[in-house]
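Backbone description:
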Amino acid sequence: MTTQPSTHLETFPNPQPGRDFTIRIDIPEFTCLCPKTGQPDFAKILIEYVPAQQCIELKALKLYMWTFRERGAFHEAITNEILDHIVSAINPNFMRISAEFNVRGGIYTTVIVEHKAKNWQAPPLVMLP
């Protein structure tokens, strides 16, 4: 059993590649370090994506998130880096990452980044009564 951080993002084939569906992954205990003070930063990260051919394997994602624990980086940089790495691994139709950082110096920060595949069109929203 791996108990070390890893930047390897393992994937698996989308079980329904002909159907658009959303996968939501909630990571409530993300940690990294403030690049200015070295103090810990805490965040809730929500990953939402519409897979194309591949999906992200959750244990690999957990070990990937662990790699940030001892790194100092700005919230904006971390959120964009996570998006870039996951998009590179699975090339989803759509992905949105929302990173809600806990208070630092009396200020809360939320960073939202998105990726949309060039030729993908979102299905129309269905409003139910």
